[in-house]
Amino acid sequence: MNLTLKIWRQADANAQGEMVSYPIADVSPDMSFLEMMDMHNEQLIDKGEDPVAFDHDCREGICGMCSMFINGEAHGPDRLVTTCQLHMRKFKDGDTITIEPFRANAFPVIKDLAVDRSAFDRIQQAGGFVSVNTSGNTQDANAIPIDKHDADKAFDAATCIGCGACVASCKNASAMLFVSAKVSQYSLLPQGKVEATDRVLNMVSQMDEEGFGNCTNTGACEVECPKGISLENIARMNREFLTASLKG
Fold first, then answer.
1. What superfamily would CATH give domain 118-247?
2. Cα distances (Å, whole numbers) of residue 11 to 66, 114, 239
3. What digits encode the pLDDT tens for the residues 155-194?
4. Is 119:106 a contact under the CB 8 Å cutoff?
């Protein structure tokens, strides 16, 4: 396939960015999107030009690093996949593909398509954990009976990889889906009950401090989430937050 790539180029967070068009030829439909980007960067390097900076790591849909906004959609036109799992057969010969970074005030651009998502790390640090008794009298977690329904819901929430597609897809750049998945992961399990009140209050407070927007239940986050995290988690977090606020 012969394609035209319109890629956002920005030297650093303080530089003025712009869209730059590049032709690329002989793209195999069997290539992954990142393999196509590698091919493009090799051509730029051969010409003595600066390659396009983008995040990637596992290339197996696990780490969430490969965050690109492709033709107006987080991770591109496919569903339930990350950018590294997107294949070029989703595009047609002669297509123009617009590639941008995830845009949100809380995700400042580092360079080109790479953004700083450490805001998610700080939200996790605020409460996305359980304290463990290491006194020598610890109880095996597998020995604690848990309702199958709750265990399944917790597992579904735990599949969130923190890629930020929910933020990029939201018109308000809200992080509610991400935070609610992390809150739900623990609130559904007995191990998370001890710190449930502080957890939801602290994580929501940190989310607001980072500058993420509010949720208006549009649902774009769930549609474009590569792991299909449900809006049900946002409702659960709202209930947890209300309960914790009344206790406080």
1. Alpha-helical ferredoxin (1.10.1060.10)
2. 19, 11, 43
3. 999 999 999 999 999 999 999 999 999 999 999 999 899 9
4. yes
